[in-house]
Amino acid sequence: MKKLEDLVDTYLHKGLRNKLIETLKEKGITDEQVLAAIHSIPRHYFLDSAFDKIAYEDRAFPIASDQTISQPYTVAYQTQLLQIKKGDKVLEIGTGSMYQTTVLAALGAKVYTIERQKQLFEQTPTYLFKEQYPNIEFFFGDGFEGLPLLAPFDKILITAAAPKIPEKLWEQLKVNGKMIIPLDESDTAQRMLRLTKKKDGTVKREAFDTFSFVPMLEGKTQK
Ligand code: SAH
């Protein structure tokens, strides 16, 4: 189990993070607050120590339960589309490594995050930044159900490939709220969508680039 006091964030790591920020800018990320949040978070803490030297490459890496930590560009892209304001109540589907969760918390959101893989959820009580980011609550469950008792949310972020727009999540979004969803377009590609709930309950739909995510699956695992 990793402990914050045992981990080191060296000048090498910080230098690699600077380079990562340059790469994200070159790829079109412009939101300074998003870039600053990514710059401030040691991504290598969220990965197995075997990945220490390559943690700042702009790519996804394997984590437990055959899942992945999203590529930094994808994290930056989704977060930029969310337009987080301090105090926003955000529901994240797919806690995974807790890296994207931390980016949202660093932007001042109140984050509610759900994971369906028990093994991944069981890592959340030892979250490294508990003291720095007390504005996160972790849940074990099926993201298709959302968190009806805590709804409505200002923003909803889905970090797995969704086969459809989850109806229950749409219901848990506030008026003027935004949902970022990578929606299946083929077996291997998802179209990034930003859905805004209009006053009359209808949807404003904006389409962006395509990405490749692990699938959003129904139910939760037993182990
Ligand atoms: N945000 C994570 C991304 C992990 S990959 C990170 O940056 O590390 C997507 C995650 O979504 C996986 O952990 C997967 O188990 C989870 N997931 C898939 N379907 C889900 C569902 N229905 N409810 C909750 N989590 C789900």
- How many angstroms does the end-to-end distance come to? 18 Å
Q: Shape, please?
A: globular
- Radius of gyration (CA) equals 17 Å
Order of helices and strands: HHEEHEHEHEEHEEE
Low-confidence stretches: none
Mean pLDDT: 97
The spatial strand order of the largest sheet comes to 5-4-3-6-7-8-9
DSSP summary, beta strand count: 9
Count of distinct structural domains: 1
Write the CATH fold name: Rossmann fold
SSE-based structural type: alpha/beta
> Could you name the CATH class?
Alpha Beta
What helical percentage do the residues reach?
10-25%
If helices are DSSP runs of H or I spanning 4 or more residues, what is the number of helices? 6
Identify the CATH homologous superfamily: Vaccinia Virus protein VP39
What are the bound molecules? Answer: S-adenosyl-L-homocysteine
- Amount of beta strand: 15-25%
What CATH architecture do you see?
3-Layer(aba) Sandwich
